[in-house]
Amino acid sequence: MEETKIKNLAAAAKRIKTAIGAGENIIVYGDTDLDGVCAAIMIGEMIKNAGGKTAAYYFPDREKEGYGITKTALEKLARLAPALLVAVDLGIGNFEEVKLARRAGFSVIIVDHHEILGGVPEADIVIDPKQPGDDYPFKFLAASGLVFKLAEEFFGADFCGNLRQSFAEMAALATIADMMPRQDDNIEIINEGLAALKRSFRPGLRAFFDTDAFFENDSRNFKSRLNKIIAVLNVRDIRNGLPAAFDLLTTDSLEKSKKLIREFLEINKLRREKINAAVAEIETQIDKSAPLIFCGRRDWDLNLLGTIASILAINHNKPVFVYKILNGQVQGAARSIDGVDSVALMKKCSELLITFGGHPKASGFRAKTENLEEFKECLTKNLDKS
Questions:
Q1: Residue 350 sits in a domain of what CATH number?
Q2: How many domains does the chain have?
């Protein structure tokens, strides 16, 4: 009996090979979190190992552009069209943007793992185990886990040794960082990847174990070290158009890696102080009797909202929606609890939102400021019904 594969995996591998063979421009477009960064790096290394070249990497600045495939990004990348655009860890909700991309001369492959919102975009190829018609039994791979499966399809029997090891460690880190369930395929990826991580030849990962200050006042066990590595790699600072973690994980220099890690440690310390201050402030203002927490500020750091929401959701065991006020809009993060699907909840209020999407327990949204109060009321009303 033939093994069930993730839908469109073979088609995507073939299309990328065709683009390499024809010398097409290939753009790798990823989210700025660790899963998106690792997935983008893996796609780039897949292309390089097959003798191809990546024309550009693009990671949208969430605060300036928003999440996903953006119109701003397509305008900036238009000079490279016609081209193959491979979008990882995003894109499944970008219906209009994918149409724009194709009209501008881009072929589009989407590799995403987020919830499907009433169909999939009209991309050339879509990989998402949650899409209709995908019979693959395990639906909870990280985007990097999907790219790891794509690499298996792409390289075939040649996906072994150091090549496989370098992909496995990235997929494992991303799977853990994205808090994917530790079961089935994910267990296999994590076990293989963590074994590879301990003997990594990637300078950006080796440097963690060679930087004494990194594990100061910390236990020496591997799990503790791993959690600290992931916390630092999840810094979403954009530098010269690329996430800081991208620079660290792709450099060939051990010394540069150590320097970057020391910088990240300082950034992480400041982040933690900002998070603690925001949580403490919210704790003094929230209505403890309300079924959800809903609040925002203009001066909050957009990249910290997910962590702030996660802490509050754990502390109060209720759904949390926190947002940053922008010009006429808000952009926010939602974190939920067992039994409450944040994406399904927002879907009931979708007419009040510009965009939304993600996972049942971790998602995001964008709305007009004028719709905020009505959005809050809609969430509360539908939460009471669930």
A1: 3.10.310.30
A2: 3
Q: Let me know: does 331 contact 66? Beta carbons within 8 Å.
A: yes
Q: Are residues 251 and 325 both part of a single domain?
A: no
**pLDDT 10s digits, 111-162:** 999 999 889 999 999 999 999 999 999 999 999 999 999 999 999 999 999 9
Query: Containing domain of residue 62, as a range?
Result: 9-155
Structure tokens given for 164: 């496989």
Distance (Å, whole) CA 31 – CA 73: 12
Q: How far is CA 101 from CA 75, 124, 222, 241, in A?
A: 9, 11, 44, 20
Specify the pTM. 0.91
87: in domain: yes
How does pLDDT run across 282-320, given as a tens digit for each residue? 999 888 899 999 999 999 999 899 999 999 999 999 999
**What Rg, from alpha-carbon coordinates, does the chain have?**
21
Amino acid at 170: M
For residue 125, the surrounding DSSP H or E stretch is strand 125-127
3: DSSP letter: P
Q: Identify the domain boundary among 259, 276, 293.
A: 276
Q: Give CA–CA dist 52/55, Å, rounded.
A: 10
Nearest in space to 263 (alpha carbons), one of 292, 227, 299, 239:
239
Report whether pLDDT(216) > 60.
no
